[in-house]
């Protein structure tokens, strides 16, 4: 019997990742799949403390390499403590950001060497990649407009549009290089339309990979 699967949600700020992940989790649970929702950075007590450090607006001067290593420290703990055990017991793990975020933000966005990042990612996740990645693609300007109404913005949400455009283009390059893993979804569409697209993609994927449902008694 195949064990669980790791499905990740990626995209720039304002792309609707969190909303769509919650919607998908609810849909899959109603259809009797056992779902674990988690996020990065974070997902564990230690990871959430690292998240607070990374997103704190008082730390605007974090060096790119420091930022990278903090994200990887959070992921190492998250992978061992939460993701791996859930996969071992056959869960459908939904994660808000994972490895592709590191490549897009710290690689394409900050300009760090992609090959070095890839080697570190492989080490941290023991070579495990997401089984499916849903990339919610949105123009940088539109993403910033969506988050403009937020009363408080974290460190990343205060970046300039040029940074987000680099990240977005990085994501699209990754999708071109990994078309079997990364599915690009137009996140400028209505929320309900995006949700239905995601549900269809994921249900087909789970059935194709014979992921077992956990029927209620």
What would you note in describing this structure?
- With 217 residues, the chain is an alpha/beta fold.
- The chain has one domain (5-208): Rossmann fold.
- The protein has 8 helices and 5 strands; from the N terminus they run E-H-E-H-H-E-H-H-E-H-H-E-H.
- It has helices at 17-30, 45-55, 64-88, 99-109, 114-124, 140-147, 161-177, 191-208; strands spanning 5-10, 35-39, 92-96, 132-137, 182-186.
- A 5-stranded parallel beta sheet has the order 2-3-1-4-5, with helices on both faces.
- Helix 1 (17-30) crosses helix 8 (191-208), helix 2 (45-55) runs antiparallel to helix 3 and helix 4 (99-109) runs antiparallel to helix 5 (114-124).
- It starts with a strand and ends in a 9-residue tail after the last helix.
């Amino acid at each position: 019997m195949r064990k669980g699967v790791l499905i990740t949600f990626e995209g720039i700020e304002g792309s609707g990742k969190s909303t769509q992940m919650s919607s998908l989790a609810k849909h899959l649970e109603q259809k009797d799949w056992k779902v674990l929702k988690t996020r990065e950075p974070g997902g564990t007590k230690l990871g959430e403390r690292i998240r607070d450090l990374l997103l704190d607006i008082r730390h605007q001067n974090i060096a790119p390499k420091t930022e990278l290593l903090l994200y990887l420290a959070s992921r190492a703990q998250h992978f061992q403590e939460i993701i791996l055990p859930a996969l071992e017991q056959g869960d459908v793990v939904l994660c808000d950001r994972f490895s592709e975020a590191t490549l897009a933000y710290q690689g394409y966005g900050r300009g760090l060497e992609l090959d070095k990042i890839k080697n570190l990612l492989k080490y941290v996740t023991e070579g495990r990649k997401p089984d499916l990645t849903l990339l919610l693609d949105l123009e940088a300007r539109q993403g910033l407009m969506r988050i403009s109404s937020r009363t408080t913005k974290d460190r990343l949400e205060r970046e300039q549009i040029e940074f987000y455009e680099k990240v977005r283009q990085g994501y699209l390059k990754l999708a071109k290089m990994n078309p079997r893993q990364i599915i690009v979804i137009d996140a400028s569409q209505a929320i309900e339309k995006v949700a239905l697209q995601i549900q269809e993609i994921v249900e087909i994927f789970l059935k194709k990979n014979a992921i077992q449902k956990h029927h209620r008694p």
